Structures are given as structure tokens and as C-alpha cells.
């Protein structure tokens, strides 16, 4: 079965950085577009970034463009999200997921909490 384990979150000050990791198993990792979705306080779910199976095509939400970088290592079945210049509005639980053809997210791990506060 699909398993997704997110890590790397924490409490950081505005302007700080974090690197999130997602260890994936139970499926053909390189066949799937992977993405990061976050749920902020009272904000619902928001796709933050996507990367296609080969790693050559990416998407970023306007709110994070220029600050976040998504990448993947198919040999390690891992997807990363480098987050720089963090803002309080980035505070959320971050989840990685497989992205289906309708941009659905069908599998969920525990997520990792990112809190940006002074």
C-alpha cells in the first residue's frame, strides 16, 4: 500500500528556512507527479508545489513562488520542499501526496507541522 512519511517541520522565525522531506513507498514512485499540499489555520487545503515524475516540470503557488523549491530523488523515493524566507502565513501542516490527473490527492500521511512565528 501507499505510504507517505513527511518530516522536517518545526518552529522557525520569519525569514528562516526549513527543508521538508517525504519518504514514499508502496507504488511506482517515478511514474507519479508528486506534490506538497498544506492546511493552514482556517484556510483549508492548498496545493503548494508539484513536480512531475521525471523531475523536470514544476509548479508553485503564487504565494510561495521564488521562496520554495520542490525536488525529488527517484532513487531514494523521496520528494523535498526547500522553504526559504518563511512568513507567518506559511504556518500550516504540510503533506506530500501523489497527484492524479484531476489534481486530486488520494493518499495521506501524518503531515509535518510548520510554524513561523517570532
Describe this structure in words.
By secondary structure, this protein is mainly beta. It is built from no helices and ten strands. It has strands at residues 3-7, 10-12, 18-25, 33-40, 44-51, 58-60, 68-73, 78-83, 92-99, 112-116. The strands form two sheets. A six-stranded mixed sheet has the order 2-10-9-4-5-6, with no helix packed on it. The protein is globular and about 40 Å long. The model has no long low-confidence stretch (mean pLDDT 96).
Question: Which helices and strands appear, and what pairs or packs with what?
Answer:
Blueprint: E1 3-7, E2 10-12, E3 18-25, E4 33-40, E5 44-51, E6 58-60, E7 68-73, E8 78-83, E9 92-99, E10 112-116
Widest sheet, order of strands: 2-10-9-4-5-6
Number of helices: 0
Largest sheet: 6 strands, mixed
Structural class: mainly beta
Mean pLDDT: 96
Net shape: globular
Key descriptive features of the protein:
118 residues, mainly beta, six-stranded mixed β-sheet, four-stranded antiparallel β-sheet, 10 strands
In short:
The protein is an all-beta fold and 118 residues long. It is built from no helices and ten strands.
